[in-house]
Amino acid sequence: RIRRISITDRLLRHPGRLSMVYFGALIIIVTGLLLLPISTSDIIFTNFPIAFFTAVSALSTCGIPVVNTGEYWSMFGQVVVLFSIQFGGLGVMTFASMVALGVSRRLKVSQRMLTANELGTTKLSEVKGVLTVVLGTSIIAEVLTFVLLLPDLFRVNHGNMGRTLWQALFYAVSAYNNTGFTPDATGLHVNRWGVGLPILISAFIGTLGFPVVLNLVQCARRRLSPKRWTLHTKLTLVTTAVLVATSLAWFLLVEWSNTGLFPADDPGMKMRRAMSAAVMPRSAGFDISWVPEVTNETKVFMSILMFIGAGSSSTAGGIRVTTFAVILLICRAAFTGHRDVTVFRRRIPRRIQMTAVSVTTACFALVMVGAMMLMFTTGCAFVDAVFEACSAFSLGGYSVGVASAGNPASLFILSAEMIVGRLGPLTIAYSISRPMAPEPIRYPQENIIVG
Amino acid sequence: RIRRISITDRLLRHPGRLSMVYFGALIIIVTGLLLLPISTSDIIFTNFPIAFFTAVSALSTCGIPVVNTGEYWSMFGQVVVLFSIQFGGLGVMTFASMVALGVSRRLKVSQRMLTANELGTTKLSEVKGVLTVVLGTSIIAEVLTFVLLLPDLFRVNHGNMGRTLWQALFYAVSAYNNTGFTPDATGLHVNRWGVGLPILISAFIGTLGFPVVLNLVQCARRRLSPKRWTLHTKLTLVTTAVLVATSLAWFLLVEWSNTGLFPADDPGMKMRRAMSAAVMPRSAGFDISWVPEVTNETKVFMSILMFIGAGSSSTAGGIRVTTFAVILLICRAAFTGHRDVTVFRRRIPRRIQMTAVSVTTACFALVMVGAMMLMFTTGCAFVDAVFEACSAFSLGGYSVGVASAGNPASLFILSAEMIVGRLGPLTIAYSISRPMAPEPIRYPQENIIVG
Ligand SMILES: [K+]
Ligand SMILES: [K+]
């Protein structure tokens, strides 16, 4: 009994370090497997940069492809990619939950109860419990998507059952874990609702993040009104809804007559494509064929969306919608002359505000450095460099073609962005949430002039 | 006695509104004067967009030219521009000081003494006093620059005394007020130290901001050690030094072999040009001929520098170096697990932190919206749009040629950026510094997950 608690405690003491070891080990193993001739269709040794990039892209659930997944990799290679996506997605959800759990364990009992409740982990005081729920939720979501995809994929593949099963599995895993790899060389069949809609919904639920989904399920089961949702759930849902509505409006207004993006002269079809384009960029990155066709203005808009990203503790990346919301709430409080940052009749703690500011600043600096390095190494336009850096950092999975197999330096830059995008905000959030010793010296305040 | 205090109080009650009225009235008057045929060399009626843009550019001390100042405008027109620069510069320094003063008046006596001392306005409890000191400082700085410029300008103009006096006056006013207009059609003689150095020093002092200059002068007069400088002075000087050193290194490393920027194959000459390029972009914007020649990477770097801008209450713009420093200090505190944001053994008040975050966020949004609108109206590249929007917002005065007389929409977009760049951060800072009523309801805290 004592022994078990001590292992748990040791695991929980350094979740940041633990997640680095987990992802580091997986990157080495997967790169090694993808380097083997058995992983490719042509039975050749893959270049190291391509194998490494694909391993990082899959494990970080980013999904930017450097080669055509369905054509270049053999069935063995595709299975390796699929496992990488699954372990990458499970890994980040588990570690994020463990960080939250680790924080709650260290707080005082009264606060701890509150936090545990907020995270929807009331009865999960151990890692095993977290793992079970994360795994269970993933399996349920993926099996549901898998089943829903079967009928229409069966038709697409002209009755080839083996192919249908494999593609349904790949899409199901890829969608819930928000990775944009497609097993089909022709890309995603977004025009067919039977394929597009289950993927869209699964990816969308994946972007909300584990704590939100769990809280929603628990509240629904106990028949609690939306007023009883946690602040985190409310903030995530409202911000996500605003972002999706804005994107939808943007794509319909700005890109309506862009034939590269909306080929058919059919309003219904345009609506479906715009909906897909509005939900996907923040996370999934499926159906990338149209991305290089958008206007430069849309590239900038999408870069901002991708930078904001999706929900905390989700497999999608970015600075997270709650971080973005907190920054906006700080501005609102400041402009209206308030000192307390409040929303939904709750006060946002000071520590959370500092985390939001520093995550945003650090990530912005990271994306800018990455974009500059891409400009130096590939000579691409600033707008493309920003797009590619945002996509890699926020694990969006879209690409305008800056990174290519012919330029290893660009692949390594994007790999670095993906790794930091995967581990960075989590680690920052963790390092700030460490128990704080009371300040040994409290210096006097002095005013300065800003603005 | 009672009457005088009541006028002062009324003036101090709404410095934000007062500065809007002041700049609004001046923009109307100056635009009207520049529209007249007497203002142009060719005695023609100027187009409204050109006159409006030039008036805003001069009054905001931005200095982006849309026509060649020395060729297009007559002597009368140039005098109007010169007066605009002087009144624009004086206006912002006065209003910024009044905002600070107004804030200090409202605080409790003990805090008030401290604030007044920090601002270097110990004995200036009235608007008249502030005006006197601002005016006095400006006159001293401008007369000094004027005298220092005379000998070398006399040589440049081949002994033409009238021309020399006029150019020296124009450069002296333009430099201290950090406006990049040049009276000479051939541009600034940056290669001659006799012209370049006084302008560089005057512009640099102008970027520090009125409170810093005053504090330095007072400390020097009382022979106080640098340790006794105010926190505001220390933070401004250190951040400015780091930014200038970084720019210098950047220009020497990245642009060393760019013949467009450094034409001569002479290291000393390259050094002088790099020094000028390192100091100017954040503020003055003289010598713009080389700007379109820089690489895209340098344009991005300069955009960031311009966005950060110069000192508070200075004629230069941007979010101000102290705002930038506070953001970095919040990050440092967060990463090292501290709750107090401290620097130089002083604690940065909570209100200042909120102001810094909201000024930065609002200004970033403004620049992005401006850049997007420039892309829509002119079809220019993203990097050029960002550069131009940053330059206009932060009153930098450089241009890569996005705005042109042929495209009125682009001129109005940049004018809007300049006006908001001039009044925005000040107004935001003021609205936040308003007296805060104690929160009527204090909501309970609730944790959310960010990052
Ligand atoms: K993705
Ligand atoms: K300027």
Structure description:
- The structure is a homodimer of 451-residue chains.
- Chain A has one domain.
- Chain A has 17 helices and 2 strands.
- Chain A has helices at residues 2-13, 15-35, 48-59, 69-72, 75-106, 109-118, 127-156, 161-176, 193-208, 210-221, 231-254, 267-279, 296-308, 321-335, 350-378, 382-393, 408-433, and strands at residues 342-343, 346-347.
- The relative contact order of chain A is 0.11.
- The interface between A and B is large, with 81 and 81 residues.
- The structure holds potassium ion (2 copies).
- One potassium ion binds at residues 61-63, 178-180, 283-285, 395-397 of chain B.
Offer a quick outline of the entry.
The structure is a homodimer of 451-residue chains. By secondary structure, chain A is an all-alpha fold. In chain A, 66% of the residues lie in helices and 1% in strands.
User: What is the number of helices of chain A?
Assistant: 17
Q: What overall geometry of chain A do the principal axes of the alpha carbons give?
A: globular
| Main sheet attributes: strand count, strand direction, barrel closure of chain A | 2 strands, antiparallel
Q: Let me know the average pLDDT of chain A.
A: 79
- Percent helix of chain A: 55-70%
The value of Rg of chain A in angstroms is 22 Å
Please identify the oligomeric state: homodimer
Helix-strand makeup class of chain A: mainly alpha
**Which chains have the largest interface?**
A-B, 81 and 81 residues
In total, the number of domains of chain A comes to 1
User: What ligands are attached or bound here?
Assistant: potassium ion
SSE order of chain A: HHHHHHHHHHHHHHEEHHH
